[in-house]
Structure formats: C-alpha cells, structure tokens
Amino acid sequence: MPLFGKKDVSKKTKKDAEKSQSIEDKYDVKDLLGTGAFSEVRLAVSKERPNEMYAVKIIDKKALKGKEDSLDNEIKVLRRFSKSVKRSDHSGTDDKNEGQWLTHPNIVQLLETFEDKSKVYLIMELVTGGELFDRIVQKGSYTEKDAAHLIRQVLGAVDYMHEQGVVHRDLKPENLLYYSTDDDSKIMISDFGLSKIEDSGVMATACGTPGYVAPEVLAQKPYGKAVDVWSIGVISYILLCGYPPFYDENDANLFAQILKGEFEFDSPYWDDISDSAKNFIRQLMCVDADKRYTCREALAHPWISGNAASSKNIHGTVSAQLKKNFAKSRWKQAYHATTVVRQMKRMALNSGAGISQDARMDNQDSLVNGMTESNRL
C-alpha cells in the first residue's frame, strides 16, 4: 500500500533497501504513552543521542486501509512546519519536491518518518507539559491576562498556518498542550489529522469536533480559514468561565444553537470579566464568516495587544467549572506519564548526566503528546 506518494515498501528494489533505514536503526521504541483509533504513541529514545527523547506515532496500515489520503495529508501539513529545509524520510525514496519546510515555536513538529510493510512511524517532538485545562485547574492563580497570553500564542501560530495556506479545522482544548512542566512553558498546537492545505481557497467537507465547529461548516457551506477563528473564540470563552458557550445533550439542538450563534455571558460567572474580553469573543464568534475577525485582526484587539485584560484572580470560578464540565470522558486519551519519568530516571542514572531540555519532565501525573482521540463529525 503506497503512502506519501511512494512505492510500496514490499516492492522495494535492492538499491532501495540499501538506502532505506528502519526506525530500529535510529531509535529504541519504549513505553506506551497513548492510543487512538488507528495508532498508538510510544516513547522513542535516540540511539545516537541517548539523552534525547521523542514521541513516535505508530500507525497500523491495516487499520488505516481506505483512509490513506488522510494520513498523507497530515504528513504533508506537518512537513510544512518542521525545522529542517530538507529532511529525508526512510521509506526507500527521497522527497525532492517538498520545498522549504517551515517552522513555528507553537506547533508540534514532525522530525522524520519511517515505513515498513505493516506500519508507518512518525517521530514527533515529545510534549510533556500536559493539557491546557489540566494546567489551569492546577494553578493557584489565574487571570484574564493569563488567558489572553494563552490565546495570543494560539492566534500567532494559527495566523502563521493561515499564511502558509493551512487550515487546522479541529482546534479545541485537547489539541493545545504545554511544551514542558515549567510555569512559563509555551503552548503548542497538535493533532493535524483534519488539517487541510487550501488549494482553491474554500473547502466543503464537514469535519471538526461538536461544540467547536463553525456555523458555516454545519450549514454545509463552502468555508475557509475563518473556521479556525471561530474555534479560538469558543476556546477563549471557556478559558474565561470554565464552561462551553454551546451545550446540549442532543446534537441537533447543539447545532441549532451554533448556527444561530446563541450564547450568553451568564451571571455570576461573567460578572468580573472585562467588557473588552466579551467584545473580543463576539468578534471571533460572529456567525457571518465574512465579518468575523481574522487571526491578524484578533491579534490587534486591545484585549490581546493592549492592557485591557483584567488582573483579577478568577481561578476559583473557572477551575470549579472546568472540573465540572470537562471531566475525563470515555473517548479521551489515557496517557502514562510515570513510564516517561521512570525512563528518564534510568537514563540519568545510566549516563551519569542530566536529561536534555527536550526530554525534561517533572514527576507529575499527566503527559500529553500531539495525538488525541477526537469525537469528530
């Protein structure tokens, strides 16, 4: 089964085989970190630099049968945001037409790919800081300024994506991860499984996650980059109150709310939130996609670029609502941070040296990498 526009590895020539490298040549694949519908994520340790750790997303070709184009698309998108101008993959041929690969500090990067007869392997940055909402709940203090700082990073990364012709199409809190456990860690955007490189400028496929999907997608209209801005608006809303702007157990009712843009700033939860924050959210969650802010316009809003965000501590209200409304659900990933911590300690003892910046992690009970089991349309 050819992937990435390449020959089936089972039909490689002798020359191809000599040129190809297997994942085992470069990495020790270790403990399980998470599982998805078609894949699993494991810890990968570099054989050349044993103090460096990565995440490897392992995709089963049999499970993926019929969905190869989706994987091919995800890899093409990820390659646009990788550090190197030219990286080889190890499936027997070189990509000579990929062009310059681009990078952004808030996008989880694909480092290289491998392929064998039964599986595809994506070597990714190991992102160890945990999910967005988990970190907010753990904080002792949390303000509008904190929320604005988070959204500024997301807007900057998505604006960069849009400049490169990429629409994420599935922005949601589960796909916003902290790079490390440091208090000042940056936020990272992950999971590009539904992302699309714009060719004609508009798309029509209905996809996304209920609750975050834009009205024009539900209305089955052609859509573009504005769908990501809507999703950022929904995330911004949740960051300031702890509950979603749209909710109903019945999907039809939920979608009806979204199509009409029916949301409120309920008392008492929004009483202490600034008018600037509310205006910002209204601009991002405008039902008319043509009137909706772009990422660039959102970055210039006073709540993001100025001093309009309040410094009042809203942690108590927001964390209580987050715990109530976003408890771990049955479809969400189960990540095993302790396995990574144990591996890091073993490596440190064996080498007698410290762990590299890319591999740092405190002994906490959450680790997240760029793959989530999404409740998708």
From TrEMBL:
Residues 1-20 are annotated as: Disordered. InterPro entries: Kinase-like_dom_sf, Prot_kinase_dom, Protein_kinase_ATP_BS, Ser/Thr_kinase_AS. CDD domains: STKc_CaMKI. SUPFAM superfamilies: Protein kinase-like (PK-like). Belongs to the protein kinase superfamily. The keyword Transferase applies. The keyword Iron does not apply. The lineage of its organism: Eukaryota, Metazoa, Ecdysozoa, Arthropoda, Hexapoda. Pfam families: Pkinase (PF00069). ATP binds at K57. Residues 27-304 form the Protein kinase domain. This is Protein kinase domain-containing protein. Keywords: ATP-binding, Kinase, Nucleotide-binding, Serine/threonine-protein kinase, Transferase.
